[in-house]
Design a protein that fits this description.
Layout lengths: L2 E2 L3 H17 L7 E7 L4 H16 L2 E7 L4 H14 L5 E4 L9 H5 L13 H8 L8 H12 L8 E5 L6 H9 L8 E5 L6 H5 L4 E4 L17 E4 L3 E4 L7 E4 L4 H4 L5 E2 L6 H21 L6
Helix pairs in contact: 1-10, 2-10, 6-7, 6-10
Bound molecules: NADP nicotinamide-adenine-dinucleotide phosphate (NAP).
The site of NADP nicotinamide-adenine-dinucleotide phosphate (NAP) has 26 residues, from helix 10.
């Protein structure tokens, strides 16, 4: 039997703690998270709805701001500068990826590290490398939280991260290998140029897949008994469901059933926990800015 690693109980535990901290913390008011996005149909739009719902559920203030169509990179940077300067705004999330001509890295660099709630700016990533993180990307913390909740073997173990993007795969690999999270895993990082994925994964007791390629992981590449935390999220056509498409991960769940030790479902695995970690990050941002209990 393959254990089903549901995200909801993990998210519920995080939410409970966040709700109490949102009420009790610094500045004498709830934290305010602002989510900046292009006003177009994209996976981020789905994520936005979840953010609004999750914020309301835990007592975090939430505002969304659309980048005006045709606004351009300078206007975006100007808007982010204004949010960075606005005293009532604690945390800012910027849609990612952004198409050309926007430059995500240049835009996010406009924010001070405390307000860069998803920890994807150069200062936050540098602090993660330096083992003194301010914010670690919510998706990386979510993957870790699920692994911990279900006792997937990570502490001091051989693990693999597939994907090396600077917003998902690399921060997760750093968090697993570094000292700050206390995991001390021995990490293999695989990517599109990895010559033999099966060989790269052969010793991994837990695999974190951060690719976005349905069917990438089946029993031909996953070692028997290992845990799979499926971060990947893709949309595949399915005429039998409303809207004509459904969300899938990187894992071929049917192939891994009865083979893997544990597997996160998609949807319902990493996604709900990522939103919960984002809200936790918003509380931390407020407390860092105003000297509350989450501040170091
Ligand atoms: P990305 O920037 O496109 O990076 C994908 C990574 O996968 C790259 O490092 C790429 O390698 C690697 N890759 C591509 N094909 C591969 C293959 N055949 N074998 C091994 N590695 C391969 O995507 P991202 O922003 O990091 O996001 C990764 C996935 O996580 C996406 O599906 C995204 O939707 C999902 N995601 C989920 C959540 C959530 O809350 N569940 C949050 C954020 C992201 P190269 O570097 O060599 O190109």
């Amino acid at each position: 039997m393959t254990e089903r690693l549901e995200g909801r109980p993990v998210a519920a535990a995080i939410d409970e703690a966040t709700r109490a901290r949102a009420r009790a913390g610094a500045a004498g008011r709830p934290p305010l998270l602002v989510s900046v996005h292009r006003d177009v149909d994209s996976p981020f739009r789905f994520y936005l709805k979840r953010q609004a719902r999750a914020a309301a559920a835990v007592g975090v203030g939430f505002r969304e701001e659309a980048i005006a169509p045709g606004a351009g990179p300078d206007a975006l940077i100007g808007r982010l500068r204004a949010l960075d300067a606005e005293p009532g705004v604690d945390a800012v999330l910027l849609e990612h990826p952004l198409p050309s001509p926007y430059d995500f890295s240049a835009a996010i660099a406009t924010l001070r590290a405390e307000k860069d709630v998803d920890g994807v700016g150069a200062v936050n990533l540098g602090r993660l490398v330096g083992q003194r993180p301010t914010h670690v990307p919510a998706v990386a913390r979510a993957a870790l939280a699920i692994a911990r909740h279900y006792h997937a073997p990570i502490d001091g173990e051989r693990v693999a991260v597939i994907g090396r993007s600077e917003t998902v795969g690399l921060p997760l690999a750093l968090a697993l290998a570094g000292r700050a999270e206390g995991v001390h895993a021995t990490v293999t990082i695989a990517h599109s140029r990895t010559a033999d994925l099966g060989r790269a994964l052969a010793d991994a007791r837990t695999i974190f897949s951060c690719v976005g390629r349905p069917g990438l992981l089946d029993r031909t590449v996953v070692p028997r008994g290992s845990y799979v935390i499926d971060v990947g999220l893709s949309s595949v056509p399915d005429a039998s469901v409303p809207g004509g498409s459904r969300a899938v991960g990187d894992a071929d769940a049917a192939s891994l059933e009865g083979w893997a030790g544990g597997l996160t479902p998609v949807p319902g695995g990493v996604g709900p926990v990522t939103v919960a970690e984002l809200m936790d990050g918003a509380v931390r941002a407020r407390d860092l800015l105003h000297g509350g209990p989450s501040a170091p």
